[in-house]
Amino acid sequence: MAHQERAHDGMNISDNVFGDNTQIRQGDSSEFRLDGPGSIQNNNTGSQISAVGFNASVNFHYNPGSTNKHQCLVDLRSTDPRDDKARIEQSKGCLLPGSYQWVLESVAYQQWRRTENTQVLWIKGDPGKGKTMLLCGIIDELTALERSTNQRAGLIVSYFFCEASDARSNDATSVLRGLIYLLADKQPSLIERIQKKHDRAGKALFEDTNAWFAVSGILTEILQDLRSKDTYLIVDALDECAPGDLSKLLNFIQASSSSRIKWIISSRNQPQIERRIRSNQHLATLSLEQNAEHVSRSVDEYIKLRVANLSSIADNEDLQAEVRDIMRRKAHGTFLWVSLVIGELDAASSWEVQHIVKELPESLKEVYRRMIRQIQEHKQRIAEQCWPLLSTAAVAYRPLRLEELALLAGVQDNISDKPQFITEVVNLCGSFLTILNGTVYIIHQSAKEFLTGDAYRDIFGYGISTKHCVIFSKSLQLMSCVLRRDIYGLANPTFPVDKVQEHSPGPLDGVYYSCVHWVDHLEEAEQTIKQDGDVKLSIIHRCHVKVDKFLRTKFLYWLEALSLRRSISSGVLAIAKLEQLLSTQSNTIPHYFELAHDANRFILYFRSIIERYPLQAYSSALIFSPSQCSIRHHFEHKQPSWITVTPLIESQWSALLQILEGHTSSINAVSFSPDCQRLASASDDFTVLLWDANTGALLKSLTAHTSKVLSVAFSLNGERLASGSHDGRVCLWDVDTGAMVWNVKKHDNPVLSVVFSSDHRHVTSASLGGLIWSWDVRTGVLLSAFVETTNVTVIAFAPNGKRVATVLEEGERIRVNLWDVRNGVLLRTLKGGNCRVWSTTFSPDGEQLVLTTYDAAAPSGKRDSVHIYDIRRLSERDLERQKTINGDFGRVWSAAFSPDCKTLAAGCGDGKVRLWDPTTGMVIRSLKGNTNQVNSVVFSSNGRKLASASYDGMLRLWDVHAAAPEQALVQRSRVTLIIFSPDHRRLVSASHNKTLLLWDTSTGKVQHELQGQGSRVCSVAFSSDSKMLAAGFNDGTVWLWDAQTAEQLMIFDSRTKYSNTINSNPVVRRDNTQLVPRPRGPTRWLRSISRTPRPSDAINGVFQAWDGLSELLLKAMKSNTCLVDSVAFSPDGRLLASALYEGTLLLWDRSTAALRNTLKGHTGKVNSVAFSSDSQKLASASDDSVVLVWDVASSRLLLTLQGNTDRLLSVAFSPDNKRLLSSSHNGMLWHWDVTTGVLLNTYAMESTFQLSFKNESTIITDRTVTSLDDLSQRSEVSGSFEHHNESKARGWTLSEDRCWVNRNDRRVLWLPPEYRPVRSAVATQKLAIGCSSGNVLILGFASDKHMWV
């Protein structure tokens, strides 16, 4: 029977199916019933439901609100070290005080305990020498001391036992989790350090690929809290830690040890550990081989005790003495040998004991061989069951539970009705395996090495590779049988994974190992199987046939399962590994590689959303994957039927691999680690974020900076990270732990660049003004200083840190100096023209220098320039300019060479990353996908990936070698305007490239491309009957078309009425900064003045415009004072109103194009005009914060509605014409009585450029539909206009952050960053989205009766 708890989210869940036609139906209130076999009942809390199903037993719990401390500890615990200690002592025999007392009296231990300078004790010895039991004794001793001291001023002990055969105990993350768990359990106040992060991430904090960074940071903070105590941390069997994790763990131990934080570690005598640990100056070593006499005496005591407990010879003291003597001679001081021998003697009769002990070999390997022979002597049927169990346990990546072992070994089919037989067979496998709490362990790491080495031919039959194939095949078979859509019965496609809490047993318990490791077993098989000839190659082919079918039928179910078990990053790595395997094969199944490649792109691109919301794999991921994506094609039947998206999404994957979201503000710098495994980003939000460059997982947030972080760089060995900030601070970080090593604040100006020396011993920082400091990496001590001049605005280091290029602004000209930093020698000076330098960079080989410049006086198409200089021949008089690339790119903020110097990438202000051939200057390709200007670009050291950092706060990873998609979008430039016609049958969109398109909303096809004079579209409006369309342009004209035929009807030309008389004074913003033709601010970091502001960052002053850089803005003000910012038809169709840039309103006769009236009253730009429904009144909203209401017939000003202090964006009359709404930039909605001019109410909501009434009480904005009553209640509750996230939107809308499509204010569909709107419009059962890329999407939704929400 199965028990399921179902998330009750107030939603219609009638479509959810449990078992055979078992349907859950929603009853009244919170009552539920289950029709079909089984039952379901609500506990009346609305948060927990139990259901009875068929084949599995599982409980799920919806955990609302923040996680409590108990849950935090539960999620942290992967194993309890105290339980592990008890298990080890039970399996290896009791702990004898005399066996470890000698260690406590040793010089090394006493030195570790008593002296401040000795902070790490290393106990080393060969296998079986009793290291683990010695540590158990030391733990007992220290724990007793811990209990006897005052808790507040005393000491605290934590410990962990590594086990190579258990994936939960053989990596660095698990070690720290165990240590933290024990510390927090002993001292509950420490839980707050964990809970703060756990509340945001849930269990995934400890389990995904960024877990090491999380737990190492947590333990570092905990140890800082415990610095007033003596803290003893003990880790056993370091040699059993995974090779890739051992160095991280040793680095952490060395970095965290101090006079109050002390470590004891144990391991075998392994050279790699010896080499790393010997550098520790605070180390004491205790070798068991050098203390063989003590070890031998301890083994003798152990033998004495174990022999005395042999029941078969308990009454025969002479025989006991003889057995003890023989065992002492043969044991050679090895506890494990004694334990294995006693295990055999326990099962022997008294008359057999003497014979057995005399026959027993002396070495461990010989004992293991004897155990193999004993298995062979079993009946053939028993032996045939033992070999699969032993071979499966030996190659598994972690200890398997009994049922997992039986399933993967393939023995359960024969004994499914007798599960107890599995235990019996395990017990017959000699003493190789032991069962503890339902999990099967190999008795010792040396036993595992013997099984996969000396006993290879005995237990693996056809070889280890074949065994991996068997486990792989069984894994696919199990997953194919178990995995299905919505396996936990969540129903809600936006139910977050961190609110799902599974109770064992669950439907994924038996297949979770397979979900994580199936590709690992396939890879292990292929590494050796290819060498065995064509017969084995056919096995590989059959394996891949199975994978092909699995991907086509179960891929999305597999992703869902990984997400539910917080292991989506494991899936990312697995599919990447699979694609790599296929790339090396010549004969594969047709389209199989393309399928694996599609699966890889799919999981990379949608990882972030599937990781948080598992069921979005079937909605957002399918909807927004390319139309020709294989995964989309194979799972098309799983795509939601309640939504249509037109036009089609792009046909192929672009070069954009992933979009990484984590920063809350603009990103200024990005850097790859030398091994390409990590990525660091520095942001205006005062943080440096560390990312996994392979999976896109956020590893660590480094938060010591107190101002904008402008620069970041890895050391060449990848162990350290340096960052520089706006306040002149330089921080050095430990990359593995995320701990800050040191920070200094010597610079008086922003730190523009940091770089490490090639020997990674020094880090050099350079600040605005030309001050360059060099620091000792280890200590943070200042080594040297170098000063250029005070007017350095741009600076860059060569890759080796030995040279630096500085850019100085000298009046109207620039000068570039090239310096030898170490010697302070000026190598070369380059004098430039009248331009602004935005960035400079060296090539990886240090032989080329790039400058990116802007010249406002240059002709159109040549204002932005990229200059490439050859700096190899410094002895010559002038630097040789190799190439200059010109264009209008919206500024080139950053440039970077590929590692082979054959490609130059540039991050541009128009949102594109351009790739050029630096030799020819030819464009290789343009990478599109950024929604705003690109501040930084960098190649990975292998040249395969490019990272770009954007003003929108997102990182993007690109495959620079990916083929460009063939299909082009209709709109090729940022969408600037988008509105529905009143009948919702048409949609008009305008883009930055002056394109105006008319769409059919039912088909999503472009009906007409409306032709104008090549001017920019500033405003659009439909007539009330949807038959005509008007558009206002920046040349002062308003064009009128027939909306059905696209026939141009007439042109209203305001240029004949107004001349260009505006002066050329600088534009003043509200923050008192000025926009001038060529900004010459004293600092590079003030370049944000010239960035393209977002629509919400409109420039204020005498005149304003939201789309344009400062130079373009001034030019527009001088020549386009008549641009039309708003147009509106009168409802009766007789008049057309247009608002000019300088604040004048014009009323036109729609039939004759004659100017009827001119309305003057505003002192700022008019953003919106609206007629009353009877066409008798006209309202206008302006940047001057005033709403003016006019009498249309007489042109008389009726009302001046003021009180708001911010610019007004939109205005609308109520249907009865008695009331009026105006929306301001600060999010206030003002509700006026039109008759009296009295302010009726104010509401808290976000600003909007589109505002209209749906009926007397409901309004429509550019993203939502909501009622005034809801707004009123919300405003009363919040009491502030800053808090408006509790709105009760009606129907289909966009979330406030524009990341989700909502239904009745509940999230339904996630929007990938590429498809988030910069402009949007709302209609009944429709949403229109205009993207920065130029893409226009029309989302259509089914009627309520067809909806599951």
Automatic annotation (TrEMBL):
PROSITE patterns in the record: NACHT (PS50837), WD_REPEATS_1 (PS00678), WD_REPEATS_2 (PS50082), WD_REPEATS_REGION (PS50294)
Key word Repeat present: yes
The keyword S-adenosyl-L-methionine is assigned to this record: no
Region (Disordered): 1-20
Keywords, in A-Z order: Repeat, WD repeat
Domain NACHT: 119-268
Pfam families with a match to the protein in the record: NPHP3_N, WD40
Segments annotated as WD repeats: 660-701, 702-743, 744-785, 885-926, 927-968, 968-1009, 1010-1051, 1117-1158, 1159-1200, 1201-1242
PANTHER family: F-BOX AND WD REPEAT DOMAIN CONTAINING 7, WD40 REPEAT PROTEIN
Record-given protein name: NACHT domain-containing protein
Organism: Trichoderma harzianum CBS 226.95
The organism's taxonomic lineage, starting at the top: Eukaryota, Fungi, Dikarya, Ascomycota, Pezizomycotina
